[in-house]
Specification:
Layout lengths: L1 H12 L18 E5 L2 H9 L2 H6 L3 H7 L2 H17 L3 H9 L2 E6 L8 E6 L3 H21 L7 E5 L2 E6 L3 E6 L2 E5 L2 H12 L9 H9 L6 E6 H4 L3 H12 L1 H15 L3 E9 L2 E8 L31 E8 L2 H6 L1 H4 L2 H17 L6 H7 E10 L16 E8 L4 H20 L2 E7 L2 E7 L20 E5 L2 E5 L2 H13 L9 E6 H8 L3 H12 L3 H15 L4 E8 L4 E8 L3
Antiparallel strand pairs: 1-2, 1-8, 2-3, 3-7, 4-5, 5-6, 6-7, 8-9, 9-10, 10-20, 11-12, 11-18, 12-13, 13-17, 14-15, 15-16, 16-17, 18-19, 19-20
Helix pairs in contact: 2-6, 11-12, 19-21, 20-21
């Protein structure tokens, strides 16, 4: 009772002529809402980035500006600025200073949608609306189209339609564009005749009540209505039975199943941006199957991502395959259970000694870390045709017998490679740990690998305390042994953490420049020297893009996912 009364009081105190909340015009049956409450601030946040400014100087970006479509759009913008007497930042304030929103449904096809621009200058909105209609008419005539704009004024509201899928209207300083006539009429009705004093749209209250404060733009999805569809019901039912979905997306699907909406927001942060996504349902009420991805409250979700020198991407995730195996009869249906156990028996037959796949899964730990990193030195004198970075995997063990039990399994698999490819095994001591490695002979041709891709790999493994370390090269294997033994940092509550480093990625990209050079020569007809310089500039630019971090956390009441981009210097 208190919130609606407060909202009504605030609306009554609003100054006359103030821009309306664009969501007041949104049909209440909308299932998707996208909003920029301050579009100029959003646009300037993007165009003000050093990375954006630098990108404009790259020949590849310049080529995009030279396309016919880009030229026409720029000409149209210049024409609009001249006719309306203002540059685009000011026009954003005049035509959308109260906010810009898109409201849509997912069904039926074609899904109805409406664009709402809440302006602050009614005279400028009137001029812009008329100009847009004239430009659309001229463009249709230029292309020889039959459908011309049809204009009419009804009860003081300007309407324009073109064919069956373009409908527009202006109500004071508010401009509305829709692909469905009925949706446009509903949006106009809500704009012209708000119910007494307008209350906040439920999307605004729900999304902004869950997200961090002050987003540049935000989105809301009505999950409550979507879950009434048969497609959604089938999806959630199937997700409970699909082992792969359970391992990868179990927590997210379970939170969505119990949430009435999904919200996401874009934020300016540390010179870059944060994308925050939220569901209003967390650990409380989760099904027991979600323990595969979400540890018990109070226990670490993930270990710190590994970060050896040259890291391009590092990923740490909590996935408890042992819990899934132990509780497979409760977490899967009878048919899936039968398939799992049959597969386990078949695989166990070929495993060495008395170990079974079930034994290994029961001992397998829940903390998994993956690393992709550049080489300090190539593993072979022979250069591969395609140079790949190194990658590694580190997993914790629930049982100290895990390493000794897995050792003969890995050695048996390597034995097959030894017979087929002539691999030679060796052992390397590093910080008191023995790495067992396998190397391809450089003097033995391999018809199935004419480009020498195999010379990217010198696979190795080691047991470090309670962790198993596997790497594609001995060099990375040693780096990972050092990282694991150091054990810097503590486990955190997040169930997934990842980091991508653009500088290291650019170093890797430098080894893949030939296709880019060829594309530049063929696509734009530039000389070889110029193409190489373009690609070198592009690689250098990529190296300045900084880092991207990803984190997913499941609290008692929320499912949270955050992606943060921090530009380099």
């Amino acid at each position: 009772m208190f919130r609606p009364a407060l909202a009504a009081c605030l609306a009554a105190l609003a100054p006359a002529g103030a821009a309306a909340d664009p969501l007041q015009s949104a049909p209440r049956s909308a299932q998707l809402v996208l909003v920029a409450d301050h579009p100029r601030r959003l646009a300037e946040a993007v165009t003000g980035l050093d990375a954006f400014k630098t990108a404009q100087t790259l020949p590849a970006v310049g080529a995009l500006y030279d396309t016919t479509t880009a030229k026409r759009l720029l000409q149209l913008l210049a024409f609009a600025e001249k006719e309306l007497g203002a540059k685009w930042p000011e026009l954003l304030d005049q035509l959308g200073g109260g906010g810009v929103a898109v409201a849509a449904r997912f069904l039926p096809e074609p899904a109805p949608a409406v664009l709402i621009l809440s302006g602050t200058d009614e005279k400028q909105a009137e001029k812009a609306f008329a100009l847009a209609v004239a430009v659309i008419g001229d463009e249709i005539a230029r292309q020889g189209g039959k459908d011309r704009p049809v204009r009419e004024t009804v009860d003081g509201v300007e309407y324009t339609r073109v064919g069956k899928e373009f409908h527009a209207a202006r109500v004071g300083a508010t401009i509305l564009v829709a692909n469905d006539g009925a949706w446009l009429r509903e949006a106009v009705e809500r704009t012209v005749k708000p119910r007494r004093r307008p209350l906040p749209h439920p999307a605004r209250e729900a999304a902004l009540g869950l997200l961090p404060k002050d987003p540049l733009a935000w989105a809301w999805v009505d999950l409550a209505s979507l879950k009434q569809t048969q497609q959604a019901k089938d999806f959630f039912e199937a997700a409970r039975k699909d082992i792969i979905q359970l391992l990868l997306f179990g927590a997210a699907v379970d939170s969505a199943r119990r949430s009435d909406f999904f919200a996401a927001g874009l934020y300016r942060e540390k010179g870059g941006f944060r994308l925050a996504a939220r569901l209003p349902a967390g650990r409380d009420g989760m099904g027991e199957h979600v323990a595969v991805q979400v540890p018990p409250a109070g226990t670490p979700g993930t270990l710190p991502p590994l970060d050896p020198p040259g890291t391009i991407y590092s990923h740490s995730v909590y996935v408890d395959a042992g819990y899934l195996w132990k509780n497979r009869d409760k977490l899967t249906d009878a048919e899936t259970l039968k398939e799992i156990e049959a597969g386990e028996k078949q695989i166990s037959k070929v495993l060495p000694s008395n170990v079974t796949l079930g034994d290994l899964l029961a001992m397998w730990g829940p903390h998994h870390r993956v690393v992709v990193a550049n080489h300090t030195a190539r593993p072979y004198k022979t250069e591969p045709g395609l140079k790949l970075p190194a990658f590694g995997y580190v997993v914790s063990a629930r049982d100290p017998k895990f390493g000794p039990a897995l050792d003969p399994v890995i050695r048996s698999a390597a034995l097959l490679g030894t017979v087929q490819f002539g691999l030679k095994s060796s052992e390397h001591e590093h910080e008191g740990v023995t790495l067992t490695a396998y190397r391809f002979p450089e003097n033995k041709p391999l018809p199935d690998d004419p480009d020498g891709i195999r010379f990217n790999f010198e696979p190795c493994f080691a047991v470090v305390g309670g962790d198993l370390v596997v790497a594609s090269t001995v060099e990375l294997g040693k780096k990972l042994v050092t990282e694991v033994k150091t054990g810097a940092g503590k486990g955190g509550p997040a169930v997934l953490r990842g980091v991508f480093r653009a500088g290291a990625a650019a170093d890797a990209l430098a080894g893949f420049t030939d296709p880019l050079v060829t594309d530049a020569v063929l696509a734009r007809g530039v000389g070889l020297a110029a193409a190489r310089k373009e690609v070198a500039d592009l690689v250098a630019f990529a190296g300045t893009l900084g880092t991207v971090t990803v984190e997913i956390d499941v609290t008692a009441k929320e499912y949270r996912a955050d992606v943060v981009w921090t530009p380099g210097k």
